[in-house]
Amino acid sequence: MEDLQKRFEGFIKPGSREALLLRQIHPERLPHHVAIIMDGNGRWALRRQKPRVVGHRAGAKAARRIVETAARLGIPILTLYAFSTENWKRPQEEIEALMSLLREFLRKEVETLKRHDIRLRVIGRWEGLDAAIREELYRAMAETATNTRMQLVVALNYSGRAELVDAFRRLYGEAREQQLPPEAITEALIARYLYTADLPDPDLLIRTSGEMRVSNFLLWQIAYTELYVTETLWPDFRPAHFFQALIDYQRRERRYGGLGAAALP
Ligand code: IPE
Ligand code: IPE
Ligand code: MG
């Protein structure tokens, strides 16, 4: 197994706190899929007496760094919660700022994604976004479609319940057409109708800025996901915080309702 330290050459200073934390991560037991609720941009700005938009800009920067960190670590799937269907309730000005940051990200970062062999995917009712943004999303997804090192899944105009509604509508249509008996409806079948049909469930869900709630993010998929909530606000979330979450995750015992290793003879 290639040394993790090596993969971070030029990205992390040797001897720094980050480098020390990195040493504590077992590369062979990394989560396969990490999902992040990037929260706290507004509070970050408020603390600095700056407009919320400034927090979102700093948040976008943090996201770029974390994407690169996940790719270097060798995490195969990273899902980021970027904009929920509920976020349309925010002031128009803030929504516009978020959309323009998204476009900026797409314009600037597609090259980075290509360089790091990262595939971009979008989940959510993203047909509900502006035509110009949809266009750029299509392009970014097409241009990175064959990349294999990591999948970056961005949840846009996403709601866990809306996802289930969409899934059940399609499932109902097809079940009727094919005259499926009720027993044909299984967990595996339902999962096939979700946006995440071909993705494994997240192993680890990180939420920043301390809120102990899921906020309508990946509801079905997190049935057995390990949760990690940190007080750190998203714009302050650095590779070191990410490493800390991974170290914490690796110390846990996943039981899936069973007895776990402690009960073994
Ligand atoms: C998360 O930060 C970013 C998005 C919702 C896009 P918030 O804007 O929710 O920040 P807080 O929760 O108000 O601090
Ligand atoms: C979490 O969402 C952050 C996102 C990236 C969407 P919110 O900030 O909208 O969630 P609540 O309102 O605190 O539950
Ligand atoms: Mg919030």
Overview of the structural elements:
By secondary structure, the chain is of the alpha/beta class. Helices cover 43% and strands 14% of the residues. The protein contains nine helices and six strands, in the order ααβααβαβαβααββα. It has a six-stranded parallel beta sheet, with helices on both faces. Strand 3, helix 6 (131-144) and strand 4 (150-158) form a beta-alpha-beta unit. Helix 2 (17-23) packs parallel to helix 9 and helix 4 (52-73) runs parallel beside helix 5 (92-115). The longest helix is centred in the middle third of the chain and has 24 residues, at 92-115. The protein is globular, with a radius of gyration of 19 Å. The two termini are 31 Å apart. The model has no long low-confidence stretch (mean pLDDT 95).
Which sequence of strands runs across the widest sheet? 3-4-2-1-5-6
Helix/strand order: HHEHHEHEHEHHEEH
Question: Which segments are poorly predicted (pLDDT under 50) over 5 or more consecutive residues?
Answer: none
- Percentage of residues in strands: 5-15%
Please outline the major beta sheet.
6 strands, parallel
Q: How many extended strands?
A: 6
Instruction: Name the hetero compounds present.
Output: 3-methylbut-3-enyl trihydrogen diphosphate, magnesium ion
> Count of helical segments?
9
What class do helices, strands and sheet pairing give? alpha/beta
Residue-averaged pLDDT: 95
Measured as a percent range, the helix fraction is 40-55%
Radius of gyration over all CA atoms, rounded: 19 Å
First-residue to last-residue Cα separation: 31 Å
Question: Rough shape?
Answer: globular
